[in-house]
Amino acid sequence: MTPAHVLIVDDEADLRKLLARMLELEDYRVATAANAEQALHCLRSDRFEVVITDVRMSGLKGTELVSEVKRVAPATEVICLTAYGNIRDGVEAMRNGAFDYVEKSDYRKTILPLLARAVTKARQQWADQGATPSKSAGTPFDAVIGGSAVIRRAVELGRHVAPTGAAVLLTGPTGSGKEVFARAIHAASSRSGEKFVAVNCAALGRELLESELFGHKAGAFTGANRDKPGLFEEADGGTIFLDEIGEMETDLQAKLLRVLEDGSFLKVGETQERRVNVRIICATNKQLEAAVEAGDFRGDLYYRLAVFVITLPSLNERREDIPALLTHFLAIYSAKAGKRIAGYSPEFLRALQAHRWKGNIRELRNVVERAVILTTGTQLEPPALPYGFGEQPEGPPDQGSLEDLERRHIQRMLLTHDGNKAQTARALGIGLTTLYAKLKKYGL
After folding, report:
1. Whether the model pTM is above 0.85
2. β-pairing, 196-200 with 168-171?
3. Secondary structure class of 55 (helix, strand, coil)
4. Cβ–Cβ contacts within 10 Å for residue 148, how many?
5. Which domains does the chain have, with CATH numbers?
6. 429-440: buried (b, 16+ CB within 10 Å) or exposed (e) per residue?
7. Which of 47-51, 83-87, 329-333 is most confident?
8. What's in the keyword line of the UniProt record (predicted)?
9. What is the pLDDT of residue 418?
10. 401-414 pLDDT, tens digit each
11. Backbone dihedral angles phi then psi of residue 132, each to the nearest 5 degrees
């Protein structure tokens, strides 16, 4: 596994050197900074799983640095060093998003196990995005794992468009890594030091989505007790990622088009226009051209977004990338489980390559996590895979029992929906109680 990358921030040179040497002896990659400003420069040019920072420094305090770290690199975890008797600083740091705090007088005893847990959490957060944290500086697209021709072509397009500031439309099936790709575009742009804000347009109703995106004035509707800034304001100067843009209502599409055209919008319940400077990246798993023809998506917005389209392939179209993705997720989840799993058998890999990946990279991630949990040896083997995994699609119903077919179908739908039982029940067209009964019946 690649050694974790740790950034030490302290204005005391002796402590920086001592702590750096201590971590290097434990096989960590270490960089140091004398103040918060240097630290933020490091974070904008390289990736770190963990930042260890002193709380009391000249200039920006460590507690304030925590907020800046989470803004620049949300997946990076922060551990704060506090002087004896200044626990209040540690509590403030935790409120700002720190992973934990350690008293300086006791750090030699406690820092290593705490750091190991912080690294695991940071890598888990990157794994949830299909990304890998520790790469050399200046290579944001290294977060996109794989060397197949189709993914290399997508990365090449991403590298070209990233510095331009143009709106981008990412297309591809669910679970193919569109948010990871959007983050890479942001990280490779001149806006990399500013916020990246992501929102799923399908997860919110029309009124709530409008309020989330554009904000509202106090009294605009029942329950609006105070002014609320929207996500466009929060992302000002940075990038906003609108996932599942095809689910947005047409009247909200008109407001989005206005932002694209001149950066202006109206808060809900407000009459005075506001302006922002935001890059917009959208994603969809729908055929928007067909939605335009059906009248479900505005043609003017589509053509404005479709200036630069990048299509991400399904995992079935890039099966040669499965070994690299498998190795990546195996490292993440074996570390999380505290297991020493060195690899996987040829039979395990063949089963993955034979599988029809309806859930794409997200489904692969879930399969690997499950296999790691079940594995007691030193490598992943086929018995750790779900029942019937990797088999070709079933033949006609007379080939096998109805119960056997139902069990397999439920199992695959669970994998497709990240194990979310409510979503699985909706997709199957049954009630949640019925699903639980079937899961119990089939031992799933």
Report:
1. no
2. unpaired
3. coil
4. 16
5. 5-128 (3.40.50.2300), 140-311 (3.40.50.300), 317-442 (1.10.8.60)
6. eeeeeebeebbe
7. 47-51
8. ATP-binding, DNA-binding, Nucleotide-binding, Phosphoprotein, Transcription, Transcription regulation
9. 64
10. 677 678 778 877 77
11. -125, 130
